[in-house]
Structures are given as C-alpha cells and as structure tokens.
Write a structure and sequence with these properties.
Layout (H helix, E strand, L loop, with lengths): L2 E5 L4 H12 L3 E6 L18 E5 L12 E4 L6 H4 L3 H22 L2 E7 L26 H21 L3 E6 L2 E2 L10 H10 L4 E4 L5 E3 L1 E2 H12 L8 E3 L4 E3 H12 L5 E4 L14 H6 L9 H19 L6
Parallel strand pairs: 1-2, 1-4, 2-3, 4-5, 5-6, 6-11, 7-10, 8-13
Antiparallel strand pairs: 9-12
Bound molecules: nicotinamide-adenine-dinucleotide and uridine-5'-diphosphate.
The site of nicotinamide-adenine-dinucleotide has 29 residues, from helix 1, helix 3 and strand 5.
C-alpha cells in the first residue's frame, strides 16, 4: 500500500485516478480548490477509510508525508483556463514549485500532468516527444500552454539539480464521464447540445482535427508511467486515431439520434489546426500501453453519463 497525493483529485481525470488508486488498495489524499472540480465526482469514494479530501490551493505550499504525487491540478478547458489567465499560470508554475518542493522534502516520486498544448499549433504531424512545439507566448491560450511548458522546465530542473524522482506525461484530448457540463470542450458541448436537440456549434469549418482518448486509457497510462523505473518521460499519452471536428459532430448526431442541426461559429484565435500523438515511446516504455477504447464506445459511455446528468440536475447548469 502506498500513500498517494492527487492534486486536482475532484476534477474529471483526477476523480477517475483517485478511484482506481483506491481500488488498488492505496491510501489516497485528494487535494482540490474546487475551481472546476466537484465534490460529487468523489462522493462515492467518501466512505472508503483509505480516502481523505483536503480543500487547498496548490499555489500555496502544502506539507504531507506521501510516497507518490500526481500533480493534476489545473483547469483544462479553454473556457475555464482563460477565465482567469493569471491564476492559470500561477496554478501551473507555483503549483509545480510547491509540489516539487514537497516531493524533494519527503523523497516522493512526482508525476506532472502536462499536455499536448506544449506543442502549440504544431508544424510537425503527428507529434513526437522530441518536437519543441510552435506556441504563441502572448495569445489567449498562452497562460495554459506556457504555464505547462514552464512546469515541465521546473520538473526537469528539480530532477537535474536536486535528483527529484519525476515523471512527465503529455496528455492529448481526453473525454468521458465527469467532464464538467459547462467546460465548453468539444465532446461535452456536442453531446449536451445533441441530447437537448440544440444546434451543434462547430467553430470554423470543422476541418481542424483532434485525437480523442477515453479517460480509462489515460488512467492506465498514468499509473504505468508512475510505476515504471528508469523512465521519466516526457511521454505522450493519447489515442492516435484522428478525427475532424465535423466527423466528431456527425458521430455524436448518429449515436444520439438527435434532431440537432450543425451551425458554424467563428474559430477562436490560436486554435491548433491538427493534433495527433505519436505513441511509440509510450508503447515501448510502458509495457505495450496503448488505448483500448475507441471513439464510438467511449462516446456511448459519455452520452449515457450526460443523459443521466441532464435528467438528474440539468437545471442546476441552466439546461
Ligand atoms: P478539470 O478541470 O476537470 O480538473 C482539474 C482539477 O484541478 C479540478 O478539480 C480543479 O478544481 C482543480 N484545480 C484547479 N486549479 C487548482 C488549484 N490552484 N489548486 C487546487 N486545485 C485546483 O480538468 P481535467 O480534464 O481533469 O484535467 C486534469 C489535468 O490533466 C490538468 O492538469 C490538465 O491540464 C491535464 N490535461 C487534461 C487534458 C484533457 O483532455 N482532459 C488534456 C491535457 C492535459
Ligand atoms: N470546438 C468546436 N465547437 C465547440 C467546442 C470546441 O468546434 O463547441 C472545437 C475547437 O475550436 C477546437 C476543438 O473543437 O478546434 C477542440 O476544442 P476543445 O476546447 O475541446 O479542446 P482543445 O483541444 O482546443 O484544447
């Protein structure tokens, strides 16, 4: 049994990670400031005596004796991370400094949830870990992209300078149950719009691409990376099957049988035109890890989740 700290543990990915770590018999401390997380994401874990929850903001130091730290705290959707961009940078940078300081002090292994956004609007396709990226340092996505890039720098410097036992994972677009219904990400937006028979909002002409990973595949890759010896990353964790946003909209329409129509809206600035992970490094280093759940199966599970959520508490979100 390990003592494990999960920052951002009440969020979408963090809650699935806490659940899996508890199922494996670990002692889990979930730390969150509830900016985009929700206690209901972890309510079903509360009666497990191995689970503890702490309301705390990672921009402030936090001290606890643990063996491993998963640093997941950071708003991940463009709508949420652009709401208070200075805070977003603080969360990534000061959060990394505080958690790395803790890892150094208690000699814990620490994993950083980095992102495909470190590649920006990539000029290399698919993206391999040795690509340095194409990021606008002063655009609307910069608080997130540059914050995460600086966090990677801090992780590498704590590793080189202080021998901290780090892992860096670059997550590509991930979806599934417990995404925030108002976070504006494309999968949750399209599913909710389809379930309500509202217009499906494609930004631009819909020819931009993303590669969508189901959350269970991410959690598996995350835990394998944390527990692999002699490999620190950075490593891409994502599903290499690439779709245009128009194709995604069509799939959601087919799977829900909605009456919704597609409408086109202006493209946000700096929106990457294509994104697909090269996952050869993950396959090689993480015992053959690769995604098992493909888009249609993952969308069905996610549609089912949002269908229930809208029936049970849709009004809370103004639906
Ligand atoms: P999310 O917004 O659902 O979860 C983030 C959690 O962190 C929330 O519970 C939020 O309340 C908490 N948080 C935010 N700022 C905090 C702070 N200052 N102190 C303490 N807690 C704070 O997002 P997610 O999709 O679950 O993302 C989890 C992590 O994975 C993030 O670091 C994100 O950047 C990274 N990531 C996610 C994706 C994706 O597609 N989901 C892609 C790339 C990277
Ligand atoms: N998008 C869209 N309609 C929406 C939400 C998003 O067309 O209602 C597009 C967005 O412009 C981007 C892609 O879908 O090209 C993925 O957006 P998301 O916010 O999910 O994540 P990103 O990968 O851009 O961080």
């Amino acid at each position: 049994m390990k003592r494990i700290l999960v920052t951002g543990g009440a969020g979408f990915v963090g809650s699935h990670l806490c659940e899996r770590l508890l199922n494996e018999g670990n002692n889990v401390i979930c730390l969150d400031n509830y900016f985009t997380g929700d206690k209901r994401n972890i309510l079903h874990l509360m009666d497990n005596h191995l689970f503890e929850v702490v309301r705390h903001d990672v921009i402030n130091p936090y001290f606890v004796e643990v063996d491993q730290i998963y640093n997941m705290a950071c708003p991940a959707s463009p709508v949420h991370y652009q709401y208070n961009p200075i805070k977003t940078t603080k969360t990534s940078v000061m959060g990394a400094i505080n958690m790395l300081g803790l890892a150094k002090r208690v000699k814990a292994r620490i994993l950083q949830a980095s992102t495909s956004e470190v590649y920006g609007d990539p000029e290399v396709h698919p993206q391999r870990e040795d690509y340095w990226g194409h990021v606008n340092p002063i655009g609307i996505r910069s608080c997130y992209d540059e914050g995460k890039r600086c966090a990677e720098t801090l992780f590498m410097d704590y590793y080189n300078q202080n021998n901290v036992d780090i892992r860096i994972m670059r997550i590509f677009n991930t979806y599934g149950p417990r995404m925030h219904p108002k976070d504006g990400r494309v999968v949750s937006n399209f599913i909710i719009q389809a379930l309500l028979n509202h217009d499906i909002t494609i930004y631009g002409d819909g020819s931009q691409t993303r590669s969508f990973q189901y959350v269970d595949d991410l959690v598996e890759g995350t835990i394998r990376l944390m527990n692999t010896a002699n490999f620190i990353g950075p490593v891409n964790i994502g599903n290499p099957n690439e779709f245009t946003i128009l194709e995604l909209a069509q799939k959601v329409i087919d799977l829900t049988g909605t009456k919704s129509k597609i409408i086109h809206m202006p493209m946000p600035s700096d929106d990457p035109t294509q994104r697909r992970p090269d996952i050869n490094l993950a396959k090689e280093k993480l015992k053959g890890w690769e995604p098992n759940i493909q888009l249609e199966e993952g969308l069905r599970k996610t549609i089912n989740y949002f269908d229930n959520l809208l029936k049970e508490r849709g009004t809370e979100y103004g639906y």
